[in-house]
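Dear Dr. V.,

Thank you for agreeing to look over these. As mentioned in my earlier message, I'm a first-year student in the group and I'm still getting used to reading structure tokens, so any feedback on how I've presented them would be very welcome. I ran two proteins. I've put each sequence directly above its structure. The first is here:
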Amino acid sequence: MTSRRRLAIGACLTGAGCLLVLVVSSPVIVDLGIMSGYYLLLTGSWNLLAGFTGQFSFAHAGLAAVGAYLTVWLETGVGLGAAPSLPLAAAMTAIIGLALGTVSLRVRGIYLALITFAFGGAFTVWLTGARDLTGGASGHPTEFLFTGVDQKPFLWLVLGLVVAYFLTQAALVRSRFGLQATAVRDREEVAEGLGVRTTHVKIGMFTFTAFWAGLAGSFYAGYIGIVAPSIGGLNTMGLIVAMAVVGAMGRTLGPIAGVLALQLISYQVRGFGAEYTMLIFSALVLIVMFFARDGLLGISERALRRLRPRAGRWEGGTSSDSTAASAALAEPAPRASAMDPPATDRRQG
């Protein structure tokens, strides 16, 4: 897919999001759009780290929880409001991500997944146990980003954050740093041989994605009004991975397809099959991994390619030549008659 086509699709999706904000008035649909934007920030940034750089981290949900609880601390301990706490908590999460990345990204393969998984699990356990600081499993209340019953300001804000993220990601992927990250994903040893400082590239990408995870967590705290340890739990991390895989890992627009698909499924089963949501998501991930490795985005592209009319099949001549050639191919060859002279072999005589 060319960059112009990606830009056109992104502009269409942004316009559709603005239209959704202006037209939709149902609180349920507005909440669905807000939560879709929240998961887009998480899934898009994790896809940038895993799909474009090849670093499979399971600390992303934990970093979102870091951003949410840093928002609580900035509001209750420092005395800041919800609005200034949003970017500040994201920046502090990026610093924590830098420290975590410095420790964990010096290893490769399954060891990175194990270290980040241990961080997410240990941090969630600590949040549950430290009741005096975090409120325990019941959670800790936070200030709302916007007061009043109208949820449209939250939808406008998350739409702006999502657009800002994808514009930043597009510029980063096309930059020299993005090309180095892709080289690390494809062949890390070859990238090192070409002079790429692979450890610095991985740590830089980990820090960048940690910023957006912390921003998503801080937004979640300002939208829900309470922060619980479940925000960084295994279910949330599994949902992020499922959305990235179902959409298309390593593709710019893949997280959008995955988030929209799984959020619509979650909305449809809400009320009568909510307890089976993760089971449905797991089955969908297995189906995609077995039958469509390129995700929903690849399936849609193949469907559009089949529906598109084939052009230039007869590239060697004009349309009249093509018509004549088709008529010649369709005309049956004349049958041999008994009155025709027998064929002679030219090699004789």
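The second protein is here, in the same arrangement:
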Amino acid sequence: MATTKVTTGGITDATIATADIADDAVTNAKIAAGAVGGTQLGNNAVTADKIGANEVTSAAIAAGAVGTAKLSDQCVTLDKLPHGTGSTDGKFLRANNGGDPTFETVSIPAGTTINNNADNKIITGSGTANTLEAESLAQIASDGDLWIGHAPTTHYDNRKAFFHQPTADETCYISITGPQGAGIVFGDSPGQNTGNYESIIWHRNSDDRLMITTDNGNKGLYLENGGDIEVIDGNVKFASGHGIDFSATGGPTNGTGSSELLDDYEEGTWTATCSNSVTLHSSQDLCMYTKIGRQVTVRGQIRVNDENGGNQNLIINNLPFANLSGGDGASSTAGAVRLWDQNVPSDTLNVVCEVSSNDSYLNFWVNRDNTGAERMKANTNAYALFTITYFTS
């Protein structure tokens, strides 16, 4: 029987499906060279599961067929690159003018000399070609400490940088400059944002102001160019016995100064009580005081609740600070008084309050015309308004 050829023109589209072709029926020998190209394959027709393991080798890929445009991002990972071994630890991967890269050690070029070289010294250039200098007065010690101006000596755990002026009779300065100013940031971690620093010392060029601040710059003090000190959101605190010293102002024209130190300020209240079993109304017994240095001012209004028989002297017996001692009556002090509903003699000129030397009692005195003063008696429901300033030790 005569053989009839079947050409592609005699086969209608989709007449032969994959189910009509036996496994392995189409081999490389049945496909003419170049018969199947990219135009004969649908998009995504060849997937990874259609390609046998190790089927695609470098010999099967034409030179230059796979370029960067054919590779997706991150498809070549580090495990596809050459890796070193223990013998190449610390070396660098070097390109070899078109050849395979190799691991190489970076070394000082032949002919380069380092003068005075030793451990920890910082290497600097010199005015001589191929010559470097190892600086004995600029070193980074093995513990990480920076030493400038002095060879490393004792290490301190709380210090990392040491600056020393080796020249006799000279002062060591650290110069920091910047277009807007310069400063030092102190913090609890290496980060340099507002979450990682606590304090700053810096100079602002615009007004020549030195600022020392904490709380990310919100609290601290400014040293003004004119010499004034401004405190921002804080107080000035002194240790006990210390304060503001005014000794530079000099002493008095007459007399002898004993102290020019302002070492205290305090203000508050106290509940007054009386001697001789005299009691006060609880609503009219709270008094106030202010203490500036050794000077004390007390003031208040009291009202007698019980006069205890009508012939008792009115005396407040618990001033907040005792009056100081002094000879010749120098420490005795008198103050002003105003009365309501208080009985006084008809020849009364005025009423004063008084604190005696080395005493914490406030006495009330009635000054009478052409006769001696006498103590004021307590009257039930009478008021006494007073203020007096005295000095304590």
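From my reading of the second output: The mean pLDDT is 84. The longest strand covers residues 295-306. Does that match how you would interpret it?

Kind regards,
E.
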